[in-house]
Amino acid sequence: MKRLCAILLFLVLPGLAPAQGNYAAEYEALLSALAVAETPAEADGLVPQIWNHWLTAPDPVAQEALDTALEHRRAYDFLGALSHLDRLVETYPDYAEGWNQRATIYFLTGNFEKSLADVDEVLKREPRHFGALAGRAMIYYQQGRVPLAQIAVREALKFHPFLAERAILDVPAGEDL
Question: How many Å apart are CA 50 and CA 34, to the nearest integer?
Answer without folding.
Answer: 9
